[in-house]
Design brief:
Blueprint lengths: L1 E2 L10 H10 L3 H17 L11 H6 L5 H7 E7 L7 H4 L2 E8 L5 E5 H4 L4 E5 L5 E9 L5 E6 L21 E5 L7 E14 L3 E10 L9 E3 L5 E9 L10 E6 L7 H7 L12 E6 L2 E7 L4 H5 L6 E5 L2 E2 L3 H9 L7 E8 L2 E8 L3 H4 L7
Antiparallel strand pairs: 1-12, 2-3, 2-5, 3-4, 4-7, 5-6, 6-7, 8-9, 8-11, 9-10, 10-13, 11-12, 12-13, 14-15, 15-16, 16-17, 16-18, 18-19
Length: 366
């Protein structure tokens, strides 16, 4: 299960992880979580996870400035109209974090915080509040961009290379709120992630222990570089353990589309077909949980509890397979033939897909 408001088990050298955490100067924060981390490490001792850098080698590198990290992370508050498409599921008052990534006040956050927002404000580590403008919302990646205005100033954080993150790497998860928002964490997995809202990442980063303030939080490496943006709470961060944790969108997903987001407010790639359903996997089938009102699936007669057996005549058994087969049919607007089981019958429905951005009631900026 995942929550918005999955992963190789942890292995490696746990004392080395402790040494790395001590480099951050976070013994008190670590104390809240270290017991869980050590237990998970012992349970997964037979895994083939990467070995963590030794304390001696870690000391060779300059310890990152944790206080500077907190100055790069801001609080984000968004107000969303009550008639927004996402108001019922995500609320009209949303709050989380964002990370300043350049000298002009550009902030990357998780997209659902600002989706359909009519007003956004940011709060810096020193407590100052500034209005912010929405720069981009990109449904495919999950990222949102905003820019602080009217005297907003904050230290930018360098973008790292999330491809270099390894299972077992100690990192910091940094949310708004200064040092109180800093949490010691470990990378416990890198794997595909399929979200119930027609969302798919080829590789997401999973961390543990879980933090509550995950939305838009920064995942920061031992070099002090941004590695990912917090998206979700998950109950299965490190299968087969029932281990809660968080999912982060890797920053490498942002880099190739950043120019497009700044220029156009979204990726320049052709929009994917969206049909307007939330789904779950059950017994090797994709089951419809909810049909978006006034969306394509609703217009075609798809119903909750329908089990999708095939897309375009090709069987599907997982969310990832379901999404990829839909997207392979063409761009937004393409007709999506679905074979569904409804009660004791098998029916065929054709859904005229659309661009989700056209369905949302987005800010006129877009």
């Amino acid at each position: 299960m995942v929550t918005r408001s999955g992963v190789n088990a942890v292995g490696g050298n746990m004392p080395s992880a402790l040494g790395m955490f001590q480099r951050f100067g976070l013994d008190r924060q670590l104390g809240r979580h270290l017991g869980h981390v050590l237990v998970w490490g012992m349970l997964a001792a037979t895994s083939s996870a990467s070995t963590i850098t030794s304390p001696a080698r870690a000391q060779e590198a300059r310890a990152p400035d944790v206080a500077a990290m907190t100055r790069s992370v801001v609080g984000v508050k968004a107000t969303v109209p009550s008639n927004a498409r996402s108001a019922e599921s995500l609320g009209t008052e949303r709050s989380g974090s964002g990370v300043v990534i350049d000298g002009s006040g550009l902030i990357v956050t998780i997209g659902y915080l600002i989706m359909e927002a009519s007003a956004v404000e940011v709060r810096t580590a020193d407590g100052k509040t500034h209005p912010a403008e929405i720069v981009a919302y990109d449904n495919a990646s999950g990222f949102g961009l905003i820019r602080g205005r009217y005297g907003f100033k904050a230290e930018p954080m360098r973008l790292g290379r999330s491809a270099e993150a390894r299972v077992g790497d100690p990192m910091l998860a940094v949310a708004q709120g200064g040092l109180e928002g800093v949490h010691a964490t470990l990378v416990v997995g890198k794997r595909e992630f399929a979200g119930y809202w027609e969302y798919l990442l080829d590789e997401a980063i999973f961390t543990a222990p879980a933090m509550a303030e995950f939305g838009g939080a920064a995942l920061v490496s031992a070099k002090g570089e941004l590695m990912g943006i917090g998206s979700l709470f998950v109950h299965d961060a490190a299968p087969p353990l029932a281990a809660p944790g968080n999912m982060f969108i890797p920053v490498d997903v942002l880099k190739p589309i950043l120019g497009d987001l700044l220029a156009m407010g979204r990726s320049a790639e052709a929009p994917r077909p969206w049909i307007g359903v939330t789904t779950r996997e059950a017994g090797g089938r994709v089951v419809i949980q909810r049909v978006t009102p006034e969306g394509p699936a609703a217009a075609a007669g798809l119903r909750p509890d329908d089990a999708v057996l095939a897309v375009g005549g090709q069987p599907v058994t997982s969310l990832a397979e379901f999404y990829r087969k839909i997207w392979a049919l063409g761009d937004a607007g393409t007709l999506v033939p679905l074979e569904v089981q409804r009660g004791g019958r098998v029916e065929t429905l054709s859904v005229r897909s659309m661009d989700r951005h056209r369905h949302l009631r987005l800010n006129p900026t877009f």
